[in-house]
Amino acid sequence: MLKSIQAAVLALQRRQPSTSMLLVRHLGGIALVPLGILDSSIIPTFGSLDLLTAWLAAGTPYLWFYYAAMSTAGSLIGALLTYRLGIRMGREWIEKKIGPKKYQRISNFMDRWRGGSILISTIAPPPFPSSWFFLAAGAFSYPRKQFYSSVVLGRGVRYSLITLVAAHYGRHFLRYLRHPLHYLLISLIVTASLVTAVWLFARHKNDKRLAAEPQNL
Fold it and tell me: I need a surface site. Which of 29, 65, 151, 208 has the fewest CB within 10 A?
């Protein structure tokens, strides 16, 4: 995975862009929609959507919001398709696909964090397995409206941050991402921060609910 991420970033930094990169540059934000759909599926993309979104925002900073919106739209469509696949295939198929141990970890995480689990999975960068949470949400009959809102909020925040940083720091940001270990370090820090924030929020809501229960008797 590290080599794949490094290869993708090195391609972005070449002085002579490849044909595919020239095509992305020509299409602009529209190219991010199909890539976003693919990124939210069970097919691994190794963070290519993040990198291409940042690359476009670094090249045309004043369009950062447009690129963030296109990436969010593509990710939402892909997440909905994966969610529907989870409904259709069911829990047993998911467990066979990813293995009992990983399935149990995802199941426990979703049972404990509920809506926060989807939000974290959409904001957290690779290698967080977002698509498997989308599948599990469908298989576990997670409320559809809450799923939609969590995906829109999470992906919107994620790509807004990426494009804002890329638009402000430009090539310096892309050169930083050239090193996969740096990228993974950012991923771990962001994921840990999100888990802590959601845990504190969930604990606060639970404390308020427990405090209100005697008054309702």
Answer: 208
